[in-house]
Write a structure and sequence with these properties.
With about 170 residues, this protein is mainly α. The chain has one domain. Helix content is about 85%, strand content about 0%.
């Protein structure tokens, strides 16, 4: 497999997450009413969930994800295991597609969309590379995708806990 495609995953991940780190707090403040008025069932939950984070707490949560993605990426390279990388890659790629769907539903800027659109070609290219190197069995594509999604969901719960705890402790922003 093209080593550049492998090693770019943590870089692409951080490029995408920087948009969220930089703009999430501003967006929450600016779009609170729009979010609550247009999405009454989930708008207040989204606002409440993310308003608990300080920027530092949110950044800590992203740093944890970056470390895990980096470690798994480099294990995949060291052990020449395409499936480890593909599982992480599919979790990330599905995450990007979900952000694009959120933006389509929201019909306004959300602090993930610019970089989601910019990294989408990388996700498509990475998928094509994996198909070309032999990860083209639908069963394994589905298994890797499911494991990737489950990993993202479990880790998302953990980083929300971690980010909220750190945000309470964050003396610079409280």
């Amino acid at each position: 497999m093209d080593i550049i495609v492998y090693t770019l995953l943590p870089v692409i991940f951080m490029f995408h997450e920087f948009e969220e780190i930089i703009f999430l707090k501003y967006w929450l403040k600016k779009d609170k009413d729009y979010l609550n008025n247009n999405f009454p069932k989930i708008g207040s939950k989204i606002y409440l969930q993310y308003s608990k984070f300080t920027t530092a707490g949110f950044t800590l949560a992203i740093a944890e994800e970056f470390i895990i993605i980096s470690i798994l990426t480099y294990f995949a390279i060291i052990f020449n295991n395409y499936y480890i990388w593909f599982t992480v890659f599919m979790g990330f790629s599905i995450h990007i597609v979900i952000h694009i769907i959120q933006w389509i539903i929201y019909r306004k800027y959300i602090p993930t969309i610019l970089t989601s659109i910019l990294v989408l070609p990388y996700c498509i290219y990475g998928f094509v590379i994996c198909i070309n190197i032999g990860i083209n069995n639908l069963f394994w594509i589905i298994i890797c995708s499911i494991i990737g999604i489950i990993g993202v969901i479990i880790n998302l719960k953990f980083i929300h806990y971690l980010g909220e705890k750190f945000s309470k402790w964050d003396i610079y922003n409280n």
